[in-house]
Amino acid sequence: MTIRLYNTLTRTKEEMRVRNNEVRMYVCGPTVYNYIHIGNARVFVFFDVVRRYLGYLGYKVTYVQNFTDVDDKLINASKKTGKPVPEISDRYIKAYFEDMDALGVKQADIHPRATEHIPEMIEAISALIEKGYAYEKNGDVYFRSLRKKDYGKLSHQSPEELKAGARIELNEQKEHPLDFALWKAAKPGEISWKTPWGRGRPGWHIECSVMARKYLGDTLDIHAGGADLCFPHHENEIAQSEAWTGETFVRYWLHNGYINMGDEKMSKSLGNVKRVVELRQEYLPEAIRYFLLSAHYRHPISFSEEVMKQAEGSVERMQTAVNNLNHRLNAALPGDVDADVAQKLSQFTDQFKAEMNDDFNTANGISVLFEVVKLANETVAKPVVSKETIRLLLYWFKVHGEEVLGLVKTEAENTLEQEIEALIEERQKARKARDFAKADAIRGQLLAKGIILEDTPQGVRWRRK
Predict the structure, then answer these.
(1) Using one digit for the tens of pLDDT, what is the confidence trace for 377-423?
(2) CA-to-CA distance for 369 and 290, rounded, in angstroms?
(3) CA-to-CA separations, 422 to 131, 427, 429, in angstroms, rounded
(4) Is 344 annotated as a binding residue?
(5) Cα separation of 460 and 454, whole Å?
(6) In angstroms, rounded to a whole number, what is the distance separating the alpha carbons of residues 243 and 14?
(7) 440: domain range?
(8) Same domain, 157 and 286
């Protein structure tokens, strides 16, 4: 079976073709001036599954996800708080990893920071100026968008349509309103670097082009992000990268849909932005991950308390089935694998692959997972079942439910209980030492695992959420 994915560039589903079974994938990471919100998380959770699934199929994936650690938002945050830009970015990069660890997102192979690649950016901009694609004006450097004859090909709009629909700030230094900044001259007190054009800092778009090329080469297989990045960010990346290298920048462009808050689009102007760090205190992290994967990635998805409660119920149903298998394993007898169970699991494997190969349809992949939940529950209810049959079911969940989708944990319950008891003991020691910050952190860690603590006169009791 082959993977077919929807390419934003061609607006069609295409068969994925890569060289030497290797996939070079770049996903735009966060601008680290604040905690990430649920819309950001949808990008990172979904493409975490894409990376996992490609590995499951045997592809060698090199996955790069950047951090934008210098831009207007960070500079404004620095002015507002009085803290240096690097201190702010360090704080929120750490917070990002805490959120992603909780949601089961594996770290990329490379997490480059924009500020670590300034010399390469200066080199790229210099090359674009030399080729006539860029020009300097009073310390700023702009890209000549109309010099690139196919500018607008990702957005599928002409320059006139882009100009009419875009929010373009008036700038008398530009030769054309659609020209965009490759480098920005520094204002007094701003973070800056020395260049041939004076002190300044990079524009947003050039950062990704430079980091993508450094770690993945001239041509990427997959470049991805939220639909909001299609224009101008990804459009501008294509223009500057192809002008710079003379090669096709990306073979397949993937963009995921928006998250709505009920009937409204999530936006800062409406004040309805949900931060992941806050949601983790309200809901099981596995349920947040489930919610983000429960609709096809290109479709919009609506967040609500009711939907999240349903997600928690769904995750608990899956995990309970796995826990029951582990429990029944202890009482099961040696014997051959049940042929009927083995045949059904083989069919479910084929069905899972078929759904995921069709533009990474995680929603339908989850539906297959629930079919196996049903099969597992029927199996453990039988009077007699062999250990090998239970192990085969557990292995199926481990591969598809844990390693690909990241929605269940297949380790035995008694191992989890030992871990919980150890954390509770560590919390008790922290409380006796009056290290309440550590004690609260451990309580939060347990809550993230779905464990609620109750301090009683008889000691600490715990229960599952």
Answers:
(1) 999 999 999 999 999 999 999 999 999 999 999 986 555 666 777 88
(2) 12
(3) 63, 9, 11
(4) no
(5) 6
(6) 25
(7) 421-464
(8) no
* 86 and 234 co-located in one domain: yes
Higher pLDDT, 463 or 405: 405
How far are the Cα atoms of 155, 157, 194, 335 from residue 162, in angstroms, in the given order?
8, 6, 33, 67
The domain that contains 212 carries what CATH number? 3.40.50.620
81-111 residue pLDDT tens:
999 999 999 999 999 999 999 999 999 999 9
CA of 424: how far to CAs of 255, 412, 420, 435, 456, in Å? 42, 19, 6, 14, 13
CATH number for position 293: 1.10.730.10
Together in a domain, 224 and 113: yes
pLDDT for residue 134 is more than 90: yes
Together in a domain, 298 and 210: no
Range in 9-13, 35-39, 384-388, 428-432 the model is least confident about: 428-432
Residues 186 and 294 in one domain: no
**Does the annotation place 60 within a ligand binding site?**
no
- Residues 113, 213 within the same domain: yes
Q: Specify if 446 maps to a domain.
A: yes
H/E/C letters for each residue in 14-83? Answer: EECCCHHHEEEEEECCCECCCCCEHHHHHHHHHHHHHHHHHHHCCCEEEEEECEECCCHHHHHHHHHHCC
Determine whether the annotation assigns residue 411 to a binding site.
no
Together in a domain, 80 and 214: yes
Question: Model-level pTM?
Answer: 0.88
Arithmetic mean of pLDDT over the chain = 93
> 134 with 75, same domain?
yes
Consult the annotation and say whether 230 binds a ligand. no
Within 10 angstroms of residue 76's Cβ, the number of other Cβ atoms is 11
**Is residue 208 part of an annotated ligand binding site?**
yes
